[in-house]
Amino acid sequence: MSSLKKLVVAVAGFFLIDKIGSRVLFFFSGMGESMILLYNSLKNLKYVHRDRALVLEQMVIVGVNSIPLVIVTATFAGMVSAVQAGYQLQGFASPQMFLGSATSRAITIELGPVLTGLVLSGRFAASIAAEIGTMKVTEQIDALETMAIDPVRYLATPRLLAGLVMMPVLIVFADFIAISGSMFIGYLSMDVDPQAFLSSVQRFMELRDVMSGLAKAVLFGASTALIGCYVGFATEGGAEGVGLATIRAFVLSAAAILVNDYIVATVFLT
């Protein structure tokens, strides 16, 4: 019986190691393929002046069409941050001196970029993966290659460039909306004068706070677009595969946003 138990444990351990090893190999192979896709996409930037119509179309999809979603998200994020900051500042002699700085720095460094990035990853990365994945399973990408059209130049480069340009614009816009919402709630609920709020922002806000938020925005835009394109090109299995690719693109882009958030915070804030 003891020998049988040892055999069972050995077999279970073998399958566990095999499962973990296959997952590790899959992860690193995916990383390598995504870096190759990034390189090929950047290599095609020299054709941007010819493909400007495609780039502008993607900028409208990513940027202009996302404005209502960003407004709603940023407004309530700013209002919540004001309520939480007011709760934490209870007992201080002059909360007016700190409410603006506390909320604006939290919004600029963390809430604005991360919340906007996560919301847009569900919209942007998933839509890219669904669109390119549908083209992949219906053999439209093969048709492009047959006509000597580079799919990376035609599909990936415009989306990557749109993400790089529009994500920082949307996050700066979200920061402005969120700080305005925070100031409104501070005046409405805590009697904080808007002038005192803005004075606190001006006094305590530092350049590295703004720079860290912008660095996060660039990385979030690049990673979201790259993951959406990579997952789309790797889609297999018909309609079911497209659905799984959409979910996978959202999950991977959200995880990439959190990882990049930690990396940038470590670089700028420590």
The percentage helix is over 70%
Q: What is the CA-CA span between the terminal residues?
A: 57 Å
> Strand-and-helix sequence, N→C?
HHHHHHHHH
Task: Outline the low-pLDDT stretches.
Answer: none
The number of helical runs is 9
Structural category = mainly alpha
Number of strands: 0
Quaternary? single chain
* Major pleated sheet: none
Q: Which word captures the global form?
A: globular
Q: Determine the mean pLDDT.
A: 84
Total number of distinct structural domains: 1
How large is the radius of gyration? 23 Å
Secondary structure topology:
Elements: H1 2-43, H2 52-62, H3 67-88, H4 96-137, H5 140-146, H6 151-190, H7 194-204, H8 207-233, H9 238-269
Task: Tell me what the structure shows.
The structure is a single chain. With 270 residues, the protein is mainly α. It has nine helices and no strands. Helix 3 (67-88) packs antiparallel against helix 4, helix 3 runs parallel beside helix 6 and helix 4 packs parallel to helix 8. The radius of gyration is 23 Å and the shape is globular. The relative contact order is 0.15.
Keywords:
0% strand; 9 helices; single chain; 270 residues; mainly alpha
Summarize it:
This protein has 270 residues and is mainly alpha-helical.
